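Hi team,

Below is the intake form for Type III pantothenate kinase from Bifidobacterium criceti. Please confirm the fields before the structure is written into the shared record.

FORM ID: S-0412
PROTEIN: Type III pantothenate kinase
ORGANISM: Bifidobacterium criceti
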Amino acid sequence: MLIAVDIGNTNIVMGFIDDDERIFGTYRITTKANRTSDEYGLMLLQFLALNDLKPTDVDDVIIASVVPKVMHSFTSSIIKFIGLEPIVVGPGIKTGMNIRIDDPRSLGADCLADCAGAYAAYGGRSLVIDMGTATTYNYVDARGTITCGLITTGIRTAAEALSSATAQLPEVQITRPRTILANNTKSAIQAGLYYDFLGGIERIITQFHREIAEPFQVIATGGLSRVFETPMIDVVDPDLIFKGMLAIYKRNQ
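The structure came back. Fields below:
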């Protein structure tokens, strides 16, 4: 069994992948830089136990991280509790993807794994959207080359900024509103955030279509990808990054 770990700014998400390449368990915890290796290790053991698994059932662990401060304690937990040195997506790792941007090292490990997952699962000519703390757009051509990308604010980040910068506006749950005709403060914020963000997604996709002279599919992933409903997104795949890490893992065996 392979454990794939996505360490993001807001959450750490783990996926268990069996020998048939089936993702059969996903778990999410809050990202905290001050957690110890013992804390991470105990959580991991609990997640294994929920699936009637032991550390000896784990063949390997692969990590894609955009939070350097967490890496020492988390990798130490893998070594201490699982007895394995994890594979870390980054320089020196074969990914099967060609990165043709000005500074390839600036591409986040999560974006790289997303693109690898899109290429492995759906083929090339894809615009890959990851809706997390930030929202990223990366284009993969027919040959598996990442040629360009875009970064903007995530909707949860925008909601937090709105409540923290105003005296009377509350924090709200990110959800798809039933109507834009809001009649109270909470629903007004929810509808405003949702439709403002949805409009931005559709406008960005439209602009990519205008500037790329070939048809492509749009694949969305990330914790909030299932909230937004638009015919301009062809595939919503919350497990895309795990598929990408599996593809990268297989290339490094």
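SUMMARY LINE: The longest helix spans residues 185-211.

Thanks, M.
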